[in-house]
Structures are given as C-alpha cells and as structure tokens.
Design goal:
Blueprint: H1 2-17, H2 25-65, H3 67-78, E1 81-85, H4 98-112, E2 120-123, E3 129-136, H5 142-145, H6 154-163, E4 177-185
Antiparallel strand pairs: 1-4, 2-3, 3-4
Helix pairs in contact: 2-3, 2-6
C-alpha cells in the first residue's frame, strides 16, 4: 500500500514538471480541478468568516477588497491565471470574453439537458491550455446572489450596490450556474 502511494506521488510530481506541450488534457483537468477546489474553498471560507464577523456588509467588503489579491496569490503559487467570470457579473472586471460566453452557454445547455458538466479543456492556438468549469450556487450564497426580496434582502442589496453599482449577479437559486472558473495554463 505504501509503495502504491509513493508511486502515485512520484508520478504526480513528475507530471507537474513536464512542459505544458507534453501534458494531456486529462493532466490539465486534474490540475485545474485541484486549483479550483482549493481556490473555491479558500474564497468560501474567507467570505463565511467575514459574514460571521459583520454580516453581508463585511462579506461584500471582503469580496471587493480581498478576493482578487487572494485569487492572484493562489494563481501565482500554481503558475496559472485564475479568473471567475459570469454572464451576470457583479464586477465588470469579470465580464466574459467571446470564447467564455460560448463555454458558459454550453454549460447552461448541459444543465438544461440534465447533464452534470465536467470541466472543459481547450488547447489554444498559442499553445496555452484553457480550463473552464461552472460555479454552482450554494444555498449559503443566496444571501448575496439570491432572489431580491426573498433570499436577498433589500438592505443587503443596497450594501452590495455601494461596492458594485452595475451589479447583475442576483436572482439565482441554489443549484444554478452562478459563474465559471477560467484557468489559463501558459505555454
């Protein structure tokens, strides 16, 4: 058993040092899944800590001031660019590109068809790998992204609009595709 674990670790480490041009889509998927899981957990935990300290006001302030630096530090540590995008974005910095809109639409179509969407891996013309994966709205996220007047209180939305005056990221229900992770592994 120990030899199997050691062998798996050696294989994972050796794959990590291969150039991107030598890596397979499955290897990119595995890396992307790990990076998005860690990044998502870190952001969620930080938002929930802020919420515990000061409610929606503190959580929105965290998202506005600290989410990008946190994501950027995780991107740097993993040698990848990390973006969260959405058709209905909260921050205009998160507007999707044409390719990202197409990927988002594909995820939405899969969801409508009852399929569980896996990450999509695309090798770009320049040799970079693009990894895209939907972000599914969790129940606790409705307090900031839910239905106005139901799960999102009007006072809380006023706070959100102070930080994000052009906000479009509301009226979601648990299980909806809220956004999308987009990772770029540079060649």
């Amino acid at each position: 058993m120990i030899n199997k674990v050691i062998f798996s670790l050696i294989v994972f480490i050796s794959l990590s040092f291969r150039s991107l041009t030598e890596q397979t889509p499955e290897e990119i998927r595995q890396k992307g899944d790990k990076i998005t899981a860690i990044t998502g957990q870190t952001l969620s935990k930080s938002v929930m800590n802020a919420m515990t300290k000061g409610g929606v006001s503190e959580a929105v302030k965290f998202c506005n001031l600290a989410a990008y630096p946190l994501t950027d530090s995780l991107a740097k540590a993993n040698h990848v660019s990390i973006k969260r995008t959405a058709i209905r974005w909260r921050n205009s910095k998160n507007k999707p590109s044409k390719q990202e809109k197409q990927l988002f639409s594909a995820f939405e179509l899969e969801k409508q068809q009852g399929k569980i969407s896996e990450a999509k891996i695309i090798k770009q013309k320049n040799g970079d790998w693009l990894y895209a994966k939907p972000i599914i709205l969790q129940a606790q996220c409705q307090v900031c992204h839910g239905k106005l007047g139901e799960t999102l209180l009007a006072d809380n939305y006023k706070t959100i609009q102070k930080y994000y005056p052009k906000d479009k990221a509301i009226d979601f229900s648990t299980g909806d595709i809220r956004g999308m992770w987009v990772l770029t592994f540079k060649n």
